[in-house]
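Protein 1 of 2
SEQ + STRUCT:
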Amino acid sequence: MSAREGTAPDGPEFALMKKDLIERSCQGLVEFIQPRLTLDAVAGHAEAKSRLEADARAIKRGQLESAPMGYLICGPVGTGKSFIAECYAGSVGIPCAVLKNFRSKYVGETEANLEHALDVLRSLGPVVVIIDEADAALGNRDQGGDSGTQSRVFSMIARQMGDTRYRGKIVWMLLTSRPDSLPIDLKRQGRAEVHIPLFYPHDQAEIDAMFTAMARKCGVKLAAGLPGPVDLALGLSGADIESVVLAARRKGLDRAADSGQSAPHEISAADLRAALDDFLPSAQGLEKEMQEIAAVLECTEKRFLPDRWKEQVARPGGRAQLQERLAAIREVVRG
């Protein structure tokens, strides 16, 4: 067909048809995403980006033996876990596969669905497999009440994740805000080997970068010198900052419409300050703290941590104190 229509066999039309054929062969069990962006589009998270970029270059060079089997990307809600995973695939230049709901109410069909999806992934490679909310999606081998289905599903995925024949060909990315709820079997070396915690912007430079990135994502421009000083104690996530940028944009548009003027070309300092003053971050303070501490405790490389967390884990008994705090918050949240 490409010869008849004069299109490149590796062009966008071919990629779209290939994607459609693969998804249909998977019977809706796997969704394929062709990444549009690379890690260059990620604001902040400098050390995490550096590690992922180095791994992406190794895979592109064919040095598969040095590539991790998988990653655990963790951190509080709104830190951009899904975004950085897709951008990583874009940097490598390979598709993303998102495992969809393969469970069935019929005995044996869940395992058959999963095996079919894994067969497709094995035949495709290289591919990045993203499992969002991994702690809930994957369960564990001790769950009961379903005739052993969940245990068998867990074992199938764990076995595939640990199959070193697919190192660099199937790259697993487990995303979760509760890594402490994920079974240790999946987090060990040889499976999800690199644990990368993501955090909210922790200094003014990261705040500036995040506001610029979110303005670009929303298709708007910030006036020169913005955002200016922002109170770090607000604990704004990337999602929060996007909401503030959009609110500031609406204020400018509303004011222009009320006065009969043309829409402003950029967000003004007054509109951004008004949007910030009006914004109320989520009140789930304890849950956010729990997710942040869990991410710190999962981290496999100190360089991924902001300075205040590096200092905490470096103190004698620092990690033990964090574990105690995590356990105490869990009890409060559950109660």
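Protein 2 of 2
SEQ + STRUCT:
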Amino acid sequence: MAMPARLAEIVEEFADLPAELRLEALLDYSRRVPPLPERLAGHRDAMEQVPECQTPFFLATELGEGERVTIHFDAPPEAPTTRGFAGILSEGLNGATAAEVLAVPNGFYTALGLDRVISPLRLRGISAILGRLKRQVGVQVEARSAGPAAPA
């Protein structure tokens, strides 16, 4: 499975855990979601909502120098499994290149064993989070490669 090194380490950590400890590990990642930067805090309108999630969940990505990706999540503490997945993505993908993010397999959460510890409805939500994140990165890469519009 092609993925950034830190995300691969997280997958390996989960794979080494007994099934009964995976949910606990996911909850630990829910506490690792970094706070939003000031420009996004309280400004969900500047982020994309993921309506497939059962709870209000918002994300924003930025493509920086060297095509390095920064990801921001707004996920309520009352949704610890979804927030935990956001924590995994944040820790595993922040600072990765756009190409690395776009290469992450869509169903990589099965390698984490999450499909055995959370409901299919929650899985649908986390799958949508990754899909929207990758779409945002792809749009930014495409816009950057198109360059500025030529003067008329």
